[in-house]
Amino acid sequence: MKRRARSHCPISFALDTFGDHWSLLVLRDLIFKGKSRYQEFLASDERISTNILADRLSRLENAGIITRKNDPINKKQILYAPTKKGLDLIPVMLELVRWSIKYDSETATPKKFIRELEKDFDGLADKILSQFKR
Predict the structure, then answer these.
(1) What pLDDT is stored for residue 129 in this prediction?
(2) Residue 36 phi/psi, 5° resolution?
(3) What is the value of pTM for the model shown?
(4) 3-state secondary structure the chain
(5) CATH: 2.40.50.100, 3.40.50.1820, 3.40.50.300, 1.10.10.10. Which one for 9-83?
(6) Is 56 in contact with 23 (CB distance < 8 Å)?
(7) Which of 1, 75, 89, 95, CA to CA, is 20 to 30 A from 103?
C-alpha cells in the first residue's frame, strides 16, 4: 500500500517516508545495534508498544526500507533487514548522531563510536555498511 506524498519537497518526502521517531529508532536498532527480530525491537530502552512496532515495521517494509523473511532456524519468527534504500540512510543517521552528540551533553553514544565518527565519518559509514554486504 503506497501512500501519496503530501508534496515533492525533499524534506517532506523524507519525513513522510521515515520521519517519525519510532521508525528511526527501528532503523537504528537494525543498522547500529544488529537487531533483526520483533522481540529484540520490543526490548529497546524506549519501550515501543507492540501495536506501534507492528505498524512501523509494516510502513518501513511498504516503503522499501526494510525486508522481512522467515527465520530459517525458527520458522515461527520473522527476520527484518535493511534494504539498499534503508542502508542509504546510514550517512543521514550518522549526521543525526553527530548533531545529537554536539547538543546533548549526556549522550549515551559510546566514546569509541564518537572518536570513530569524528576521525573518519566516511570510513565509519563504510564499516557499518560492510556488515550488511555478505
Answers:
(1) 96
(2) -145, -5
(3) 0.86
(4) CCCCCCCCCHHHHHHHHHCCHHHHHHHHHHHCCCCCCHHHHHCCCCCCCHHHHHHHHHHHHHCCCEEEEECCCCCCCEEEEECHHHHCCHHHHHHHHHHHHHHCCCCCCCHHHHHHHHHCHHHHHHHHHHCCCC
(5) 1.10.10.10
(6) yes
(7) 89
Helices 90-103, 121-130: crossing angle, 10 deg rounding: 130
In this structure, what are the phi and psi dihedrals at residue 133, rounded to the nearest 5 degrees?
Answer: -95, 85
Low-confidence ranges of the chain (pLDDT < 50): none
Amino acid occupying residue 77: Q
Picking from 53, 120, 102, the residue whose alpha carbon sits closest to that of residue 80 is 53
